[in-house]
Design brief:
Length: about 170
């Protein structure tokens, strides 16, 4: 079983599901707040590997969704500077296991890397259900349920008001 250093946004439903899946597979998850972590350009860059710059960005970030930031038109140096100033732009989660670092939660890739098979049969159904879900993207960014009270149908933490705190209203 692996020790997974897990950088995410506190209160994010997708991040919670990802941590549950990792824990059910017997991994130790050590969670850190991606928004308050003291990032450096070099350290942040190490999570992105050879991915295109556009894949470094959180597509649910308010500035990406509004078109203020267009990831496909930004070079690596500019992207990193933007992300250091506004961590909500960083795709989540950032994962570190041993010397390897990755961004995002690609279930197949993580399963091949460290395994996601539950350690207990009682966790089998829950794990299978989670693995069928889209664990890459914000699980509620387009939801229009009663939990969401702004007119765009997004969460309160996707708006300008609470964006710095990273707190989710649900």
């Amino acid at each position: 079983m692996a020790r997974v250093i897990f950088y995410s946004k506190p209160g994010c439903q997708g991040g919670t599901k990802q941590k549950v899946l990792l824990t059910a597979a017997g991994h130790e998850v050590v969670a850190y707040n991606l928004l308050t972590e003291p990032w450096t350009v070099e350290r942040l860059r190490s999570f992105f590997g050879d991915r295109p710059v556009a894949e470094w960005f959180n597509p649910s970030s308010p500035k990406v969704k509004s078109g203020e930031v267009v990831p496909e038109k930004i070079d690596a140096e500019t992207a990193l500077q933007l992300m250091l100033r506004e961590p909500l732009l960083i795709r989540r989660p950032l994962l570190e296991i041993g010397n390897r670092r990755e961004v995002g939660f690609d279930v197949e890739k993580i399963d091949a890397w460290i395994g996601l098979k539950p350690v207990d049969e009682s966790l089998q159904e829950m794990s299978e259900n989670l693995m069928k879900q889209d664990l890459q993207n914000c699980s509620h960014g387009n939801d229009r349920s009663a939990h969401h009270d702004n007119q765009q149908g997004g969460c309160n933490h996707h708006g300008e008001k609470n964006q710095k705190q990273g707190s989710c209203s649900h």
